[in-house]
Amino acid sequence: KKKQPCATSTLNQDYYTEFQLVQIVQHTENTNIYRFKLKDNERLGHKPGQHLIIRQMHPNAQNTSLYRQYSILSLPTETGSFQLLIKLYPDGLMSRVIRNWSV
């Protein structure tokens, strides 16, 4: 039998990693599922129940970032991509930024 190469992990506690958004699926009126690309044999490297911290530039304050934790929808064993479940709030600053995300 030919051995499959082990999947590598992407997450690193020491620095932020940029991911490419490849799909947005509306789940409810104010909640979307966002799929991000990983390399083919790469996994996110999270544990069940773990959240992912998203950092984005503040829409009104230069050189200021927003930080929010979001639920990881993907299984820890999934390779090639991962999904986040994100609820968007009418007056939320991060929600305003995320509404402008596109694939």
Average pLDDT, rounded to a whole number, is 89
Approximately what portion of the residues adopt beta-strand conformation? Answer: 35-45%
Integer-rounded radius of gyration:
15 Å
- Percentage of residues in helical conformation: under 10%
Low-pLDDT regions: none
According to DSSP, the number of beta strands is 7
Q: Which shape, going by the Cα principal axes?
A: globular
Largest sheet: 5 strands, antiparallel
Classification by helices and strands: mainly beta
Number of helices: 1
End-to-end Cα distance: 39 Å
The neighbouring-strand order within the major sheet is 2-3-7-6-5
Please describe the structure with a list of short key phrases separated by commas or semicolons:
single chain, 103 residues, mainly beta, two-stranded parallel ribbon, 1 helix, 41% strand, globular
Would you mind describing this structure in some detail?
The protein has 103 residues and is mainly beta. Helix content is 7%, strand content 41%. The chain has 1 helix and 7 strands; from the N terminus they run E-E-E-E-E-E-E-H. The strands form 2 sheets. Strands 2-3-7-6-5 form a 5-stranded antiparallel sheet. It has a two-stranded parallel sheet with strand order 1-4. The longest helix has 7 residues, at 93-99. The termini are far apart. The model has no long low-confidence stretch (mean pLDDT 89).
